[in-house]
């Protein structure tokens, strides 16, 4: 099935402007045009856009995404390069997760403090040192529970 740029924008959450920008930046050489010169996308293109969006959301620079797209066009001779790129990006994402878990721990700790303060009516009544901080395993379990509740 083929999709217009407007339909793809709705399906992906990317704006038409962003899709045109991605094309201009060489990120979407796979996009074809119909007889009238309008961009048309297929399901494989949607998958590629989802991957580009994922990489962008993990902080990968456009230049590296463009390189990845080029390697894909070049074929199997670049498999090792693509693997190395994703292994490198995994390290970046794991560091982001670590930082986010530390932030989640701080936020949860404050929720615990303010929950107790609301019960007692005074923040000064709460001994912050007595409130245990959640372990990484507990934080990850909280993330898993969120995913299950939101069907992610």
TrEMBL record:
<dbReference type="InterPro" id="IPR047057">
    <property type="entry name" value="MerR_fam"/>
</dbReference>
<keyword id="KW-0238">DNA-binding</keyword>
<dbReference type="GO" id="GO:0003677">
    <property type="term" value="F:DNA binding"/>
</dbReference>
<dbReference type="Pfam" id="PF13411">
    <property type="entry name" value="MerR_1"/>
</dbReference>
<feature type="domain" description="HTH merR-type">
    <location>
        <begin position="2"/>
        <end position="71"/>
    </location>
</feature>
<protein>
    <submittedName>
        <fullName>Transcription regulator</fullName>
    </submittedName>
</protein>
<keyword id="KW-0678">Repressor</keyword>
<dbReference type="GO" id="GO:0003700">
    <property type="term" value="F:DNA-binding transcription factor activity"/>
</dbReference>
<dbReference type="InterPro" id="IPR009061">
    <property type="entry name" value="DNA-bd_dom_put_sf"/>
</dbReference>
<keyword id="KW-0804">Transcription</keyword>
<dbReference type="InterPro" id="IPR000551">
    <property type="entry name" value="MerR-type_HTH_dom"/>
</dbReference>
<keyword id="KW-0805">Transcription regulation</keyword>
């Amino acid at each position: 099935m083929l999709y217009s740029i407007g339909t793809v924008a709705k399906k992906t959450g990317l704006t038409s402007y962003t899709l045109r920008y991605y094309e201009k930046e060489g990120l979407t050489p796979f996009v074809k045009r119909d007889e009238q010169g309008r961009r048309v996308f297929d399901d494989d293109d949607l998958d590629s856009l989802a991957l580009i969006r994922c990489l962008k959301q993990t902080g990968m620079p456009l230049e590296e995404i463009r390189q990845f797209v080029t390697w894909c066009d070049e074929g199997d001779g670049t498999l090792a390069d693509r693997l190395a790129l994703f292994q490198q990006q995994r390290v970046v994402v794991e560091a982001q997760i670590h930082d986010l878990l530390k932030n989640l721990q701080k936020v949860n700790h404050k929720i615990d403090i303010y929950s107790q303060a609301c019960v007692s009516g005074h923040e000064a009544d709460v001994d912050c040192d007595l409130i245990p901080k959640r372990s990484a395993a507990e934080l990850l379990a909280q993330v898993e529970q969120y995913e299950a509740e939101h069907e992610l």
